[in-house]
Amino acid sequence: MVTLRFFGGVNEIGGNKILLEDNGTRILFDFGQSFTFGADYFTSWLSPRPINGLKDRFEFGLLPKIRGLYAKEQLAFTDFPYAEPEVDAIFLSHAHFDHVTHICFVDPQIPVYLGVGTKLFLESMEETSGFCDYRKHEYCTFRTGRKIKIGNVVVEPVHVDHSIPAAYGFLIHTSRGTIVYTGDLRMHGPRRDLSEEFVRRGKECEPDALVCEGTRMALKEKRKNYSEGQVERMSNEIVSSTDKIVFITHYSRDMDRLRSFYNVAVKNERNIVISPKTAYLLGKLIQDEHLDLPDPLKDERIHVYYKRKKSGTYDDADYFLWERQFMDKMVTCEFVQKNQGSLIMDLDFYQFAELIDIRPGKGSPFIHSMSEPFSEEDIQDAVLHNWLDHFGMQFHQLHASGHLKREQIGSLVTEINAKMVFPVHTENQHLFKQITKNAQMIKPEKEYGI
Length: 450
Ligand SMILES: [Zn+2]
Fold this sequence. Notes:
alpha/beta, seven-stranded mixed β-sheet, seven-stranded parallel β-sheet, 20 strands, 21% strand, globular, binds zinc ion
């Protein structure tokens, strides 16, 4: 008997938790946190009490009660008894929050399989963020081409293009046939060839089941999306037609986007100013020779921006150890203020206070290279625009999504042609019915036989 159960990512975008069972072998694919996780009960400073492990989350049914999955200490105050591991492995498709976060609760005896690059992302997040801790695990890294045998199952990771490097889909060979799991993927990024290869490989398996992401599966797409190439071209137009500083903001793990802006800087003979955190992440990721990213310590085009901290004098001791390694590349607000026309600056929303010291010239462009806000009452968006208006800056919205368009989902599903299709990571499962009669409408936690 081979079964699939979906504990997350059902009728929601993100939070994938997919449990495969094959005659006693149990494997979990992704263990991420929903974007709306606990929002009905926890807000602002009211949050689950760390000392209570899973107790406060179980109270509101925020995590599934799966036997033999969780660490002993996480269950200590709950009424759910600890059991020795009954899950043989966890596979992570990529390092986005909504696919990995909950591994922090998992029993350290259960091995976690992940891409070489995904491991580097997790390390970087733990090392540079004060509150990120995935806890101890036995990590086993993979690349495309590996075949990993776990009990009765062989898992083949195959790279895909997504808005983070080292993203994978999986070909899962069970004792009753193959299941294809897409993870998150797109066809309009710089490595479309990777996603195409994944689809081809998936099709060749003549799979019994396809677990397919459907982030952009909607009747009508409300937000404007470009390809990565278009984002780069349009950013280049903005930069080449101004003599002012250009600010950009993007998702911190989207290295394709950072590379696009880096390319624009090179083309316009400007330098790019990044934060120590981004420099640290780049420094990590260049350990993976497949990723083709600039070295923050060696690349002449890269400056690293240091905020004033503690003593206010840019003293080494003011900064975390991990921040200090880029001090040779240091620029300060004074430097940026004086050299505005020769710079592109990567500036996260939460660092906007730096604008007070930088004093950008009137009309300086700001490129918002992230999703447009979900609602018109978005408070953060209103604050962002207040800041831009205050400094007389010019707003541009330019983003390429990490996900397939609706028509592309249709092509992928038709091409792979599985006997059963399970739509995950989507708010619109029912629209898959219009593509294929094989679409199953998933109910959370229900068991589906393959
Ligand atoms: Zn993702």
